[in-house]
């Protein structure tokens, strides 16, 4: 195309030269000498130079120029066409590059590897679902459904491998959606997982697993200022389903147990309709417990245990607890005057206390409830004043400590069957700062907590 331009330029230049040549020719005729003839006619002779005006050449040139510029025009338009096409190609290349990059980025390369990956993902899913299935008690329709779909997917992938490899993406999407559903399902079942059931009285479990949120039953019947006390449900091994509740707020000084109430149903408790409301003189601390129709408590200013018949409101038996240290020396952390804490579990009546020999560490004694004799004694290595309370379940002592004003932690265990101590962490939410007493009922497997005057109740779950 440059050539054509040059050609045209040359052509133009030669035309100019031609024009100049003509002018020169005219000049040549300027000083020609002339002669006069007889008739007075002036004659002059001109000798034209050899280089006569090249009219034909000029014409030829003109034709060539025209042809050339025509060609040039053609070439020029061709160029324009080509560069347009090149632009288009560039665009296409760019598009392809982008697509390739995209494919690389999303790692979608349809190779054998994809099928390996798919198979791995599917077997992962399968493993998850199998785990989920086995962790669920009984059958779960959703999990069964997902399991079927995964099995179908495995078959599908095997088929596809020998056929259409482009469906890898579709399968991927299916896997992702299955994974999400599995996760949802797992989260849901984690929330609603049904803990193994252990019938009342059964100790065929491996200890406390968790406690529920507290159920606030009521404020104690004497009112808000009666912050110390105990409450719970009677356990009568011969008639475990019968409901009898006791509520025993201490006097406001936090020492004397003087008045207590017995309710013959939970509704009566809620309605403040006691079957008995009685006075004793006096118990000490908030460690009392009701077991098989008798109230057991620590007799005031003594080392004595009292067995009390609430129906007749009479003391049946009073007996010393050997070596027990009393007088608020080794009470619980944050809870005064509870040197003797009675506890009831599946196997009967216990008392939790300290001795001089134990140096304030918790001592557990199993009592014969008929005679109040100590049947057996266990020494723990847990300092009693550093725990906030304790209770017994299936022969295992559980001790608590405050985490903050709203949470208590069951952190220590002592198994009287093996003499083994243990650490656990079961968090108990509480409503107010101090847990004055915790009692356990083997029939409903609930914890009864006296929390700064409020009566709280917790469901428990056990480890299988
Ligand atoms: C390039 O891609 C864009 C968007 O995908 C499309 O609109 C355009 O037609 C493509 N151009 C070519 C040349 O393929
Ligand atoms: C599994 O595949 C069979 C046959 O293709 C189909 O009838 C069934 O509905 C599939 N099941 C699930 C859970 O997708
Ligand atoms: C479900 O609980 C198990 C064990 O309790 C835990 O490993 C898993 O991460 C939990 N899953 C979800 C989705 O919360
Ligand atoms: C224990 O129970 C509480 C209250 O229901 C619950 O929030 C918590 O997640 C449970 N803890 C465990 C470890 O299951
Ligand atoms: C409690 O003591 C009485 C009287 O000694 C006895 O008959 C009874 O079997 C004892 N009970 C238990 C559970 O050991």
From TrEMBL:
Example GO biological process: signal transduction
UniProt KW keywords: Secreted, Signal
SMART domains: OLF
Location (main, coarse): secreted
Signal peptide: 1-19
Compartments where located: Secreted
Lineage: superkingdom: Eukaryota
Name under which the protein is recorded: Olfactomedin 4
Organism: Falco tinnunculus
């Amino acid at each position: 195309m440059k050539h054509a331009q040059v050609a045209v330029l040359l052509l133009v230049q030669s035309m100019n030269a031609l024009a100049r040549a003509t002018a020169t020719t005219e000049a040549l005729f300027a000083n020609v000498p002339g002669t006069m003839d007889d008739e007075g006619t002036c004659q002059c002779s001109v000798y034209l130079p050899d280089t006569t005006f090249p009219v034909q050449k000029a014409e030829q040139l003109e034709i060539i120029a025209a042809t050339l510029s025509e060609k040039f025009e053609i070439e020029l338009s061709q160029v324009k066409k080509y560069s347009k096409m090149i632009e288009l190609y560039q665009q296409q290349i760019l598009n392809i590059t982008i697509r390739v990059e995209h494919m690389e980025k999303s790692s979608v390369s349809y190779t054998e590897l994809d099928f390996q990956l798919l198979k791995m993902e599917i077997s992962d899913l399968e493993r998850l679902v199998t785990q989920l299935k086995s962790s669920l008690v009984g059958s779960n329709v959703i999990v069964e459904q997902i399991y079927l779909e995964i099995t179908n997917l495995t078959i599908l992938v095997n088929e596809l491998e020998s056929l259409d490899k482009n469906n890898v993406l579709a399968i991927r999407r299916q896997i992702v959606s299955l994974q999400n559903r599995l996760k949802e399902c797992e989260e849901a079942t984690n929330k609603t997982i049904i803990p193994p059931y252990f019938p009342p009285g059964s100790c065929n479990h491996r200890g406390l697993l968790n406690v529920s949120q507290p159920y606030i039953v009521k404020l104690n019947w004497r009112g808000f200022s009666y912050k110390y006390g105990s409450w719970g449900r009677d356990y009568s091994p011969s008639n475990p389903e019968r409901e009898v509740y006791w509520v025993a707020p201490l006097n406001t000084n936090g020492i004397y147990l003087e008045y207590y109430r017995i309710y013959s149903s939970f509704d009566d408790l809620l309605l403040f309709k006691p079957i008995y409301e009685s006075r004793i003189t006096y118990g000490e601390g908030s460690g009392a417990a009701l077991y098989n129709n008798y109230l057991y408590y620590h007799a005031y200013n003594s080392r004595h245990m009292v067995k009390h018949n609430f129906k007749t409101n009479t003391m049946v038996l009073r007996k010393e607890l050997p070596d027990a240290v009393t007088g608020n020396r080794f009470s619980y952390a944050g809870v005064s005057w509870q040197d003797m804490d009675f506890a009831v579990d599946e196997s009967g009546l216990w008392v939790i206390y300290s001795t001089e020999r134990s140096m304030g560490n918790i001592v557990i004694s199993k009592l014969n409830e008929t005679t109040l004799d100590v049947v057996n004694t266990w020494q723990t290595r847990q300092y009693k004043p550093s725990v906030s309370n304790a209770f017994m379940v299936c022969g295992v002592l559980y001790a608590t400590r405050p985490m903050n004003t709203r949470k208590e932690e069951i952190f220590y265990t002592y198994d009287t069957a093996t003499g083994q101590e243990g650490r656990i962490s079961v968090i108990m939410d509480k409503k107010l700062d101090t847990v004055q007493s915790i009692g356990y009922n083997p029939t409903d497997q609930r914890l009864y907590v006296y929390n700064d005057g409020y009566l709280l109740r917790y469901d428990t779950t056990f480890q299988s």
